[in-house]
Design goal:
The chain has 106 residues and is α+β, with helices and mostly antiparallel strands. It is built from 2 helices and 6 strands.
Length: 106
């Protein structure tokens, strides 16, 4: 799935379901980082800048939060609201990255 609006809606919906599902099942709070872009798949694992960026974005998200990078952020996603959190310097990533927080719209 490429970085299209429909794919991003699925990504955000899945991330929000993970966070909400953990809370509903009395599990420790989850936090998720979402990014879209090219990745390498080898021997059952994914590698590349996109994966690294998603991990770094997740490390900025507090419990119960879904943070989204610029590659997956799309203001026209139906059912998902994005609010800019700010620009963050992330370990191993050149330059500051704008991060958004996803929440269910409505």
């Amino acid at each position: 799935c490429k970085a299209s609006n429909a794919c991003n809606v699925v990504r955000m919906s899945a991330a929000l379901a993970i966070v909400e599902g953990a809370a509903a099942r009395a599990l420790p709070p989850a936090h998720v980082g979402v990014e879209a872009g090219p990745m390498l798949y080898e021997e059952g694992d994914y590698f590349g800048r996109t994966v690294k960026l998603a991990a770094r974005i997740a490390s900025e998200a507090g419990p119960g939060r879904v943070f989204v990078g610029e590659g997956a952020a799309d203001d026209s996603m139906e059912g998902v609201h994005l609010a800019e959190v700010g620009r963050f310097p992330l370990k191993g990533i050149a330059g500051a990255v704008t991060i958004y927080e996803a929440s269910s719209a409505g």
